[in-house]
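Here comes my example:
=====
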Amino acid sequence: MAVPPAFLSTAVKMADDGGGARAEVLARTEAHVRQAMSGEGTGHDWWHIHRVRQTALRLAREEGADAYVVELAALLHDIADHKFHGGDETAGPRAARAWLEGAGVEDEVIAHVSAIIAGLSFKGAGVATPMHTPEGRVVQDADRLDAMGAVGIARAFAYGGSLGRPLHEPEQPPEAHASFAAYKASTGATINHFHEKLLLLRDRMNTASARRVAEGRHRFMERYLARFHAEWEGEDGMDADGTGGDGDA
């Protein structure tokens, strides 16, 4: 499948600098992922991958992480998401490893990328998900930033709608899931997901660079929820200044 030049990886564009073999791996990986995930309707589509890759590479530059490992992990992090593979947590790392082995990637890079993908996901309010390398921390932050702010709100409702979940059930309180099993089994309304995951992400960022971005996206979600609940009760949702609560303090 042909990939428009505008979306070729940064490393591909620098192939003339001596990174030809790695550039080819990145180009093939991007085309593979783009073909596999284009048109997906739950918010875990190619454009999610694109955004995470772009953010992760920016964070990698700021944090001094290995851009090659970061880019491969960002591209492949959702190639076999457990949510769409019967809850199998090994599906993603296994699929990534198989692809990278077929592409002739070095063993140590394969192991590193697979480990990042295995440990990346949010697993519940009560479950720690530490990343042990700068590359892992950068990719995890980029993925979590894409679950926040305006895009994160859109993705939350796209995913909830794909599962037939209600927007909001006022009599169903959010849960603080103590285990990954409990988190995976959750069937709550989409508004609960904000409290069960999205509003927790700001304080779980690994890097200073991501924390700066997360702060603004967190405040945006808080304003959105305030207006959502006002409108839910039949109020107009407007502040005294007529901004609707959308302006920064």
In short: Residues 1-18 have pLDDT under 50 and may be disordered. Residues 208-232 form the longest helix (25 residues).
